[in-house]
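Form P-L/3: holo structure prediction, ligand nickel (II) ion.
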Amino acid sequence: MSLRNILIHPDPRLKKVCAPLEGVDSAVRKLATDMLETMHDAPGIGLAAPQVGVLQRLIVMDCAKKDEEPSPMALINPEVTWASETMNTYSEGCLSIPDQYEDVTRPAEVRVRYLDVDGQLQERAFDGLWATCVQHEIDHLDGKLFIDYLSKIKRSMITNKMKKLKRERARL
Ligand code: NI
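OUTPUT (holo model):
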């Protein structure tokens, strides 16, 4: 396992539509393992491959609460097959947009079809924080960030903060 570098917004790689994976091999499994380790280390509850500079359709998540057993998941080529009409609003954050949290409204429940790390086709229902997280991560695969749901003025304020953060980090 090894930690990968997490890209910070703005970065052109975070705006790209990612390509589907042809299948699941040891390189894909290694990437999933590295991404889970990177996500836990950050710490975060979700991470998408483009956030580590890999423009492929792979996401990892672990939304287990502190008092629950860890339940890491890797989803390859994930697709929302059903979304509830009921909506839910969460204060979202993103490892590519550190320390910024804003309310985003999304379907409260979704079903997602994906390949697991064994290459098996799965379909699973998500609700609560898991539903928010899986939709946020799938958005990353289409070059969409949670700040794209905010007003233009809020988005540019956050983007300017991130540009400043990147300048500060570059000086270190
Ligand atoms: Ni994110």
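COMMENT: The first helix runs from residue 26 to 41.
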